[in-house]
Amino acid sequence: MGAFHAYDIRGIYGVDFDKTTAYKVGYFLPSLLKTDKVLVGRDCRTSSDEIHDNLIKGITDAGADVYDIGLSSTPMVYFATANYGFNASVQITASHNPAEYNGMKVSRENALPVGYDAGLGQIKEWIEEGRETPIAAKRGTVYEKDIHEDYINFMLKYKGDYSDLNIAFDLSNGMANLFAKEIYGEKPHYLFDTLDGRFPNHEPNPLVAKNVEPLRQLVKKVKADIGVIYDGDADRVMFVDEKGDFVAPDLVIAMMAKYFCDERGAKNPLVLQEIRSSKAVAEYLAKYNADVHTWRVGRAFAAPKLREIDGLWGGELAGHYYFKDFFYSDSGLLASMIVLRIVAALKKEGKTFSQQIAEIAGYENSGEINFRLEDKAGAMKAVCDHFRQTLGEPQKFMDFDGFRLEYPTWWFNVRPSNTEPYLRFICEATTQEELQARIAEVSDILVNQFGGIRS
Fold it and tell me: Would residue 47 show up in a list of annotated catalytic residues for this protein?
């Protein structure tokens, strides 16, 4: 039962969960969310069909109907859940994880996420206590529902004029293949543009540098203006500039103001960022009089928070971008369409993607560094205590997702992994020299005092 996590159900299929788990999740879901119909979609992983069949059997045995949209990206399920008024949905996917993984992302009304504290923990408890699953007197019915045309038409409202752009795409053999060529046509250069749940070319995780390398090489080879790479279930997207350099996803949050404010005329927008975001994001958005809110990492927290503050858009370092226009949910496709609009407009002005990012970026950044250790709480406290003792109280302190301490010339965030014995550390400084010195200080504490292994 190790597959139940803060945001979703996910793990190695056949090890962390199996078809019996899928059946029981399906069986208990209608009563958990008090509904008699559930929307279901799935990705292309080799185990998704078996999970799909058992999940649906559980739902229908409980007496609820299933509306099956078939192969889908995760944002397609969010769209269908909110657009058609479902109170429950499941996307079968392991997102960016390797091929042997699979899982389920559960949503309720308005495509709001159902995380561990919002219901997945209850389902886990029911399964572990052996709660019975009697077949309903009237089993549910399975209906096939084709949402493709409605989804594409919704998305096309955000398509710009990309005719002058030279674009390179890496579809990662994942669910972006369902719509990329229909949206962008045959003109762009495509990598890994077939559905293949074995992910034979690279793992579908664009946060890992080696997975982006084929796209970087393609961008340089064809002299593309921009490179775009989606993860396995296409809820995340990341970008490579015209030089072949990876673009930090948080800086893209800031750049999106050029669409929402410069093009659409939004005034004083509410924008959501997460606790690891560069200070450059809020500093750049200040010229738009944006009200930038900082919150916890993960869709289970970001999507409800954007709705709560009625934010216009937001994003995360992991490449998730959330939009009020998209039911306050994340969409890799919508994010890429907006960024391509911006880059197309920049090109008309004689400006490149990298030049725009350079105007936003103002700091040296470590990227997220992982330390494998057991005493995460003790290690976090030790790091914070060290700097409070040597530098005094920080200018700003946040404690809602690990700790973030901000000093005049640098800041850091240290946070525990929800699922693994890792402490995640990120920092930013005005100079490379200070950045490296601070990383060395923290490494010394975590490695020498707590036996951490840096990875």
Answer: no
